[in-house]
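User: Second chain of the day. Same drill as before.
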Amino acid sequence: MALVTHELVPLGDKGRWQEALEHIPHAPAHTHDHVLAFQASSPDPHVLYVCRNGLGEVEAACPLAIREDSAPDVYTPYGFGGFASRRSLPWFAAEWGRFAEGRGWVTSYIAMNPLLDNDLGFPQAVTKHAQDLFILDLRPDLESIKRAMSRSRRAALARWDQAPSTITWEKSRVLDFVRQEAAAHFARRSAVSTYSFRDETWELLLASPTVMAVAVTQKNGLSACCIVGMTEGSADYLFGIPRPGGERHAAPLLWEAIKALRATGVQTLNLGGGIRADDGVGEFKRRFGARGVPMTTLQLVHDRERYARLSAESETVPEVGRTFFPSYRMKVR
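Assistant: Same format as last time:
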């Protein structure tokens, strides 16, 4: 393999971050605005890893969160990011391993976006199936998209189209709503601490021109909202947040977002996955006619001696392929 270089671009250098993504396919979770917003709710600094070839061309990029404590390691921040590359790179896994070892990282945990999952040379032994994501093709016309939905979903959207509620696209109103309702909504869903977002995250997210938000408005204020992140050609369904009683608006709001996304030229909408296998969240997305696509994670150990020692100290099993990786973090943090 010809000489390659590696760099970590800080969030403070937005221009360099955007330049690195300019010539490779990427998802909303790779964008500067997205990572900046979720950095605001994380204790760990976020950067963009960039690999360039000898000509200075970007070969691969990945947002990373870096734990800088006595057992430094890295993981992918919130969202569907992972390694994005402009082609298959069978040599990349070895390069990544050398770079990570040189940085002194014990492990790296990379959640891969299945829409960007080129062959990067990682062996099957370090790859774990995490869940299925539901991907909706927005290239057909709206009637064709609707025909692919479940019968109950089509009926619900037909009723909405005949007698729609009043909606708003004003992100300032959506911001006020999520500040008031998001924490209670996630608590009702027994969501993990990952969803404990600070107000600054919502402020930065909804200030971004790459984020679209729509909400149902009623006499007593908003009752539910839908938030979507966009990049060229693709979009991610980020959040659907109702207040109690507003859950019935989730599907119609997503339908309004779908119509708006198509109008902007977006071709693919990643609806995300369920919380658990075959749960109601996943079924809600499947009924839109979305296809299930396996999402994988890379669980990589760069310093086996330290990894084994940390696992022993935390009384956890040092195995790749566990649900929680690295396992020693269950007690270290």
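The chain has a mean pLDDT of 93.

User: Great, on to the next one.
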